[in-house]
Amino acid sequence: SIGRVRVEAGLLVAERAVFLVVGLLLVLGGAGPMAVLGLYVATNAVSAVIMGLAVRRNRPDDELASDPMFDVEARWTAAGFALVTVSPRIGPVLVALFASATAVGVYAAAQRPIEAICLFTLSTAAPLLPVVRSLATEGRQVEASRIAVRISAAILLALAPVVTWFLVDPATPLRLFFGEGRYEGAAIVLRVLSITALTWCFRGIGELVLLSNERARRLLHISGTGGLATVALGVPLVIAHGASGAAWATLLAEVVMVTLLLRHEPSLGGALSRRAHAPVVAAISLTVVVVVLLRGSVPATLVALGLVQALAIAGALRMVRNLEQPA
User: CB under 8 Å to 33, separation ≥6 — which residues?
Assistant: First the structure.
């Protein structure tokens, strides 16, 4: 927000590099999980301190910046993002408390691919959000909402092939990622959680739009409600169904959060309009045909899926090209 993106990116890369190198040395030296966890806490704490000092040092020296840097809006933002970070961990914790260690492994194996594609997608789309923020601060709310809709629709399109693959044939990606027969029961968990990939990314863009409009309190409301829904739904479902119950609780909580998001920011509903979702439906249909027809040959399936994914990404890039021009 103060134009020091290079400092932020460099610090994040350095933090992860230090954790990876030192953590590997600890493991090779015989250290246990608590030592690695302690290193994780330490690297994050040091990174936070350095980030705070960098922000203070580079703070613009003008009358508009005379208010406290960590004002009410910033506090709501920090609390909201804390809940956003914690929410995906509620499911595994519930499984650990009310199921078994084996169920935790099953849930984690299915959750990892979903987290990876969502974080990559959101980090790729994040550089586009300053356009939305700039328009919102200039009072051009209609244009800001239109661009946010185009970004959301592009993300849904880019995710459609891989999410559809997880839905139609979850056993194959699990076998490719983790080996044959290692996590029995993970297929249904991956199938359910794959739907949350779409809602998670759509919600992620929507929440950033809320922040660009300085509505961090609504972000906290959405995240808090989703967390409470996950716990309330998850406890009975995990007790009854284990890892798959946690997946269903996560999906239902996502539905609740998306509903609240659309209530607070109804303009985002345009991403679900006919014009926006027609390419998504086409990508889903093509992926289903490819997976069903080539299910007997994994190499052929991967090659064909790669082509479908390339087409989807090309379509997504076309959606966000020249964002400030009318669609």
Answer: none
Closest CA relative to residue 323, chosen from 203, 153, 100 = 153
266-275 long-range contacts, CB within 8 A, separation 24+: 267/145, 267/146, 267/148, 267/149, 268/145, 268/148, 268/149, 268/152, 268/202, 268/205, 268/206, 268/209, 270/145, 270/146, 270/149, 270/153, 271/149, 271/150, 271/152, 271/153, 271/156, 271/202
| Residue 123 amino acid letter | S
Contact criterion met (CB below 8 Å) for 173 and 182:
no
The residue with tokens 């932020």 is 8
Digit-coded pLDDT (tens) for 76-116: 888 887 888 788 889 999 999 999 888 999 999 899 888 88
Q: Quick count: other Cβ atoms within 10 Å of Cβ 145?
A: 20
Separation of alpha carbons 4 and 199, rounded Å: 30
CB 147 within 8 A of CB 83: no
- Give dist(CA 204, CA 207) in Å, integer: 5
138 three-state secondary structure: coil
Structure tokens at 93: 């914790």
Structure tokens at 162: 């891989």
Locus of tokens 């995240």 = 223
Residue-wise DSSP of 41-79:
HHHHHHHHHHHHHHHHHT---SGGG-S-SS-HHHHHHHH
The model's pTM is 0.77
Q: Cα separation of 183 and 84, whole Å?
A: 27
Distance CA 269, CA 279 (A): 16
